């Protein structure tokens, strides 16, 4: 069992998630009973991603559920890239980076199917993002933490080779990391702007 280093504001998220799930008719009590392993929950999360709003049903998602062998290759790539950027990378820093990527229970690479139309591509990216949020909220409700990361290793050409993804057809837009939350650590809650500053009420 491994832990995410990121902290989650449980109480606030829980309220949001509950509100969200009330309207989620696809979720039933049965889901809770049968999904007693992280893998099953991750796959359920991936199914729920597909219920994101999607203009013209372009279905732009391509998810890659990364097995241990592939993960090792991605971790090595991440470390190689870090060493290129920081030639005097200490063992402790390497250990920390390795730990972050190896300790999560699941790594899912998020792919966006490419198209020629700029406007559609923008909307498709929005759909993929909404799907990731569905996954995140569901997993949070199930007691798991998750994080969307666009670290260098997710964008490098070698990542495409490792994943056997054609970059002309699919863009890897990040890694989705899933793990148990280390509740012994203090929750870090990045501040959000005051809603009054972002909501503009017009007559
Ligand atoms: C497209 C996208 C890419 C992100 N990439 C990274 C990243 O590479 N590294 C990182 O630490 N956080 C990244 N984040 C932010 C985290 O996923 C997460 O939102 C952040 O740690 C705040 O945590 P919270 O949402 O639980 O408050 C990214 C978020 C998005 C939407």
Task: Tell me what the structure shows.
The chain is α+β, with helices and mostly antiparallel strands and 203 residues long. Helix 4 (68-85) runs antiparallel to helix 5. Helix content is 49%, strand content 16%. The protein has helices at residues 10-22, 29-34, 38-49, 68-85, 91-102, 118-141, 152-155, 157-163, 195-198, and strands spanning 3-4, 61-65, 106-113, 144-149, 170-181. The radius of gyration is 18 Å and the shape is globular. It has nine helices and five strands, in the order βαααβααβαβααβα. Strands 1, 2, 3, 4 and 5 form a five-stranded mixed beta sheet that branches. It has one domain: NADH Oxidase. The structure holds flavin mononucleotide.
Summarize the structure.
With 203 residues, the protein is of the alpha+beta class. Helix content is 49%, strand content 16%.
């Amino acid at each position: 069992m491994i832990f995410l280093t990121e902290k989650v504001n449980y109480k606030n998220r829980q309220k949001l998630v509950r509100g969200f799930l009330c309207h989620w008719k696809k979720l039933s009590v049965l889901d809770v009973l049968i999904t007693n392993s992280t893998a099953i929950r991750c796959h359920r999360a991936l199914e729920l991603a597909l219920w994101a709003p999607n203009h013209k049903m372009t279905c732009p998602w391509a998810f890659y559920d990364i097995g241990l062998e592939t993960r090792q290759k991605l971790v090595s790539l991440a470390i190689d890239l870090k060493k290129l950027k920081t030639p005097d990378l200490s063992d402790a820093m390497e250990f920390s980076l390795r730990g972050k990527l190896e300790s999560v229970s699941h790594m899912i690479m998020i792919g966006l199917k490419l198209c020629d139309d700029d406007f559609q591509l923008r909307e498709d990216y929005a759909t993929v993002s909404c799907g990731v949020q569905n996954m995140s909220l569901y997993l949070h409700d199930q007691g798991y933490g998750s994080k969307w990361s666009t670290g260098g290793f997710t964008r490098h050409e070698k990542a495409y080779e490792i994943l056997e993804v054609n970059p002309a057809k699919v863009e890897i837009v990040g890694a989705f990391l899933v793990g148990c939350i280390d509740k012994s650590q203090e929750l870090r809650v990045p501040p959000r702007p005051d809603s009054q500053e972002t909501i503009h009420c017009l007559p």
